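Notes from the 1:1 (GR / supervisor)

We went over the backlog. Supervisor wanted to see one worked example end to end before approving the batch request, so GR pasted a single chain during the call. The sequence is below; no edits were made to it. Supervisor asked that the structure be written out right there so they could see what the output format looks like.
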Amino acid sequence: MSTYARHTCTMRTTSRIAMTDVTSLIEARIHQEGFHDGFCHLFCPHTTAGLTINEGADAAVAHDILGVLNDLAPASPRYTHAEGNSDAHMKSTLVGVSLSIPVDAGRLVLGRWQRVFFCEFDGPRQREIWLRFTEHPN
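Structure output shown during the call:
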């Protein structure tokens, strides 16, 4: 397997603003590609979406995060960007668009409560997450 090949996970978001747990989607792609040990680098190629790792056991956490992001970057007519989605661009910048996660025995190495979330700020839309794998030298 080439460690420089780009792999793509495609998804459809269903609301304007949401945090979707994509941990299983990413792990399924890792398994499909036969990747075992190293790092999985994730990149969101969208300017109105992002990626983050946070608690996945209690949905209230994602709800609270989105509430704070709405407070920090509210929908507002004061923005000069003409498309009406400036708040989505601000939220994407605050959250970020890339992650690097260790992989051990084909599984993401995450903390006990951690999950990987795709953060949609201007949906619903068809979205992609790009993956690259870096093998751990044996």
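Supervisor's comment: The chain has one domain: 7-135.
Batch request approved.
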